[in-house]
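Run log // design_07
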């Protein structure tokens, strides 16, 4: 399938576009990739042509046209437009598409739809992220160089005249999509209907946000693995993708909009509201709502209303849901049912030492039922985790306790480093904010008077400088931006380590409760076992 992308550029340096098209660039930073000698490296395969200009002099010729018509001088003006025709990777193997053939198609498309403009037409065969798809870049100067015959798709009377700027509208973009579809159909290339709304609308901005987030997460996880821990999150999701995944999970199994609304909030803390016949979604970490239009047609009211209740969860006896304890249920008639009850694990109450149970027979009966529930939950827990002996359970507890202590130590270390970084940012900000005052003092003639007038600022400057010199004795002070990047990385690492620590802490708490309950069930002297366990923990 061929798709069409478009973006505008306000950069006055037209040479940057040519530089990107000819040389290899890092897909994240957009910086050129240099060889061992520090030189730029040409792309492995590319085809380049110029329309109404020489491609290697694209920058100078565009500047001449801009100067002639007195356009593109303001910083906020759109200097150029960048269109990308991206073909399906299978066109290369199944339909015989080559870079040379794609370049001819790109030239045809550009001449037909952007007449009179200066353009660079460049075809790459490497594909983004090594996907292997052939794609054509069309970069055009926003100011038309030559007057051309008026075309049907031109909306304004001046759109064919020299000196006027390229007019990008929704109607014109629809025309371009239609033109690309006709081109692919004629050439027998794979193609989808670009005019129909997308079921899952992923914009270029969201795509890159996902890529950058995944790269950043991979870097954090690499450090966590080096520290000997297992990352809790391996796949990064944008906020929009979180909503899509949650809707895909719950829409078909929800009986109605109210049920869908309730489940979405209960399971994913996502609020969905209906307003003027459309849905909008709200995440707790976000201020503004996300509309159904920005997510795709499969996340709007019209589509979701048609699939509510179309799918039900199939439950077999072996996969029966574990329910809450029901005091009204006759567990004596159905004793197996109590094995399918789950709630938060709690300690079994010792009736021999419970004063209130000794005083009240009703309360003692209630405690017995609660103990029965906790024992059943303990049995389920032990069976689910495959603990065969009491020693297996104890060994697992000691191991998890040890991992939790290491996770706490790592968390404390990162927290301490983050605190130091925050102090560095604080003093660095004070240093740069008051350095101007200090520099003025060194140039003034009456230094004594100046010190009296700016005593507070100079004192803060001196204190911050001395503190920073103690932190960085062997080199220059870092920039605020460098420390902010370091702070962000430490905060993300701290968040992951905090999650690891909480996991081990909760795990250890469950194991401690289960161990105590098992001792109560099998009749072990819990006081002696507890004393022995504490000795092992301390050792």
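design_07 sequence
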């Amino acid at each position: 399938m061929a798709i069409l992308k478009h973006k505008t550029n306000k950069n006055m340096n037209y040479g940057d576009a040519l530089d990107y098209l000819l040389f290899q660039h890092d897909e994240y930073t957009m910086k050129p990739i240099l060889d061992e000698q520090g030189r730029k490296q040409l792309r492995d395969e590319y085809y380049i042509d110029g329309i109404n200009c020489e491609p290697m002099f694209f920058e100078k010729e565009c500047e001449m046209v801009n100067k002639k018509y007195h356009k593109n001088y303001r910083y906020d003006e759109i200097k150029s437009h960048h269109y990308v025709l991206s073909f399906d990777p299978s066109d290369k193997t199944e339909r015989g598409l080559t870079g040379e053939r794609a370049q001819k198609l790109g030239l045809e498309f550009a001449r037909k739809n952007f007449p009179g403009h200066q353009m660079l037409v460049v075809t790459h065969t490497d594909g983004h992220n090594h996907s292997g798809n052939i794609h054509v870049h069309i970069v055009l100067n926003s100011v038309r160089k030559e007057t051309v015959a008026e075309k049907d798709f031109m909306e304004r009377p001046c759109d064919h005249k020299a000196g006027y700027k390229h007019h990008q509208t929704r109607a014109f973009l629809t025309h371009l999509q239609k033109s690309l579809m006709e081109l692919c159909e004629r050439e027998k290339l794979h193609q989808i209907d670009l005019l129909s709304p997308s079921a899952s609308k992923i914009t270029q901005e969201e795509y890159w946000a996902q890529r950058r987030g995944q790269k950043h997460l991979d870097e954090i996880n690499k450090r966590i693995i080096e520290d000997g821990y297992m990352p809790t999150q391996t796949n990064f999701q944008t906020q929009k993708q979180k909503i899509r995944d949650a809707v895909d999970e719950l829409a078909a199994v929800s009986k109605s909009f109210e049920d869908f609304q309730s489940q979405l909030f209960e399971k994913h803390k996502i609020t969905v509201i209906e307003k003027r016949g459309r849905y909008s979604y709200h995440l707790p970490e976000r201020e503004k709502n996300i509309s159904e239009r920005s997510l795709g047609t499969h996340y709007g009211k019209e589509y979701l209303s048609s699939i509510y209740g179309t799918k039900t969860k199939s439950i077999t006896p072996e996969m029966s849901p574990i329910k809450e304890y029901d005091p009204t249920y006759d567990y004596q008639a159905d004793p197996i049912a109590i094995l399918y009850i789950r709630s938060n694990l709690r300690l079994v109450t010792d009736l021999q030492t419970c004063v209130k149970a000794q005083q009240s027979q009703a309360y003692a009966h209630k405690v017995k039922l609660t103990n029965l529930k906790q024992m059943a939950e303990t049995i389920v827990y032990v069976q689910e985790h495959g603990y065969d002996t009491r020693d297996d359970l104890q060994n697992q507890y000691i191991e998890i306790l040890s991992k939790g202590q290491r996770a706490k130590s790592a968390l404390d270390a990162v927290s301490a480093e983050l605190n130091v970084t925050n102090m560095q940012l604080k003093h660095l900000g004070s240093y740069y904010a008051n350095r101007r005052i200090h520099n003025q003092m060194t140039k003034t003639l009456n230094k004594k008077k100046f010190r009296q007038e700016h005593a507070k600022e100079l004192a803060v400057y001196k204190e911050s400088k001395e503190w920073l010199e103690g932190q960085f004795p062997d080199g220059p002070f870092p920039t605020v931006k460098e420390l902010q990047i370091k702070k962000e990385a430490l905060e993300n690492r701290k968040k992951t380590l905090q999650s690891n620590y909480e996991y081990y802490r909760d795990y250890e708490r469950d194991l401690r409760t289960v161990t105590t309950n098992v001792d109560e069930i099998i009749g072990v002297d819990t006081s002696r076992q507890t004393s022995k366990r504490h000795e092992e923990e301390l050792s």
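The longest strand covers residues 3-9.
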